[in-house]
Specification:
This protein has 4 helices and 19 strands. It is of the alpha+beta class and 274 residues long. It has 2 domains: 122 residues, Diaminopimelate Epimerase, Chain A, domain 1; 119 residues, Diaminopimelate Epimerase, Chain A, domain 1 (Roll). The strands form 2 sheets. The chain has a 17-stranded mixed sheet that branches. A two-stranded antiparallel ribbon has the order 9-10. Strand 6 and strand 7 form a beta hairpin. The radius of gyration is 18 Å and the shape is globular.
Length: 274
């Protein structure tokens, strides 16, 4: 089987995108895992574009372990850009798991997507028992065995826990990530972000994504970090979230809607032989 697909990324957070609007392609979980394998094609997530009667398209996300993902901010921005080129439109709406996300196509490969309102109630993260989501009392240790207790829970379409640390370089996220992702507190697992404060409006982050592992960037993690950093004053806040290859700007308006802006890559056409 040969599949025509696209490859795109947002700040190195990369995707294989398969358009199913004309022909449905039924892939097994094993085939999804193979496509995501960096020894084959390789990507953080696989995205399917489907038809929608109410938006420009609907999209589905699959992690590199074959599991589904309820949201992907950078993936949404990439698909919005792809469809904007096809339809020659500057405003694109996408249906993701029955949530409509609107995107604006800006200059120089910049795309801004409205993610929606954050959820911080323990039931909405979700968390397995009643807890203070502003401090989940999770313990992590740095490479020098210094212990930090904390963790802020936020859901922005998928569950996140954010730890604010003094120095990102002092933490081994490759080992910490799966430990927190699979903690009994998170029945649907979670994404794990370490954030280092540069100033009140600028944070450097590293992310462990559930079902994908370490990634160079994560749009929903940027949104969740901005929410966590501005919990006491969410409205009309703007925060720069810096990843390995660049920054995303996250603004939260007076209605607490999250808007995420940043670059996407050019579109690469690829063929996949399975």
């Amino acid at each position: 089987m040969e599949i025509n697909a696209f490859k795109m990324d947002g700040l190195g957070n990369d995707f294989v995108i398969i358009d199913q609007r004309i022909k449905k392609i039924n892939l097994t979980r094993a085939q999804i895992i193979k496509i995501c394998d960096r020894n084959f094609v390789g990507c953080d997530q696989l995205i399917f574009i489907n038809n929608s009667s109410i938006t420009d398209a609907s999209i589905e996300f699959y992690n590199s372990d074959g599991s589904t993902s309820g949201a992907c901010g950078n993936g949404t921005r990439c698909v919005a850009y792809l469809i904007s080129k096809e339809k020659k439109l500057k405003n694109i709406s996408l249906n993701i798991d029955n949530h409509i996300l609107n995107s604006k196509i800006l200059e120089n490969f910049e795309v801004e997507t409205t993610i929606g309102k954050p959820k911080t109630n323990w039931k909405d993260i979700p968390i397995s028992r009643e807890a203070n989501t502003e401090n989940l009392n999770l313990k992590i240790k740095d490479i020098n065995k210094n212990e930090l207790t904390g963790g802020i829970g936020v859901n922005v379409g998928n569950p996140h826990v954010i730890f604010f640390v003094q120095n990102l370089g002092n933490y081994d996220l490759e080992n910490l990530g799966p430990e927190i992702e699979n903690h009994e507190l998170f029945p649907e697992k979670c994404n794990v972000t370490l954030a280092e404060k540069i100033n009140d409006k600028h944070f450097k982050v590293r992310v462990w994504e559930r079902g994908a592992g370490l990634t160079k960037a994560c749009g929903t993690a940027a949104c969740a970090t901005a929410v966590a950093a501005n919990l006491k004053n969410l409205e009309n806040s703007t925060t720069e979230i810096e990843f390995q290859l660049g920054k995303l700007e996250v603004s939260i308006d007076q209605e607490t809607l999250i808007h995420m802006k940043g670059p996407v890559s050019q579109i690469e056409n690829i063929k996949i032989k399975l």
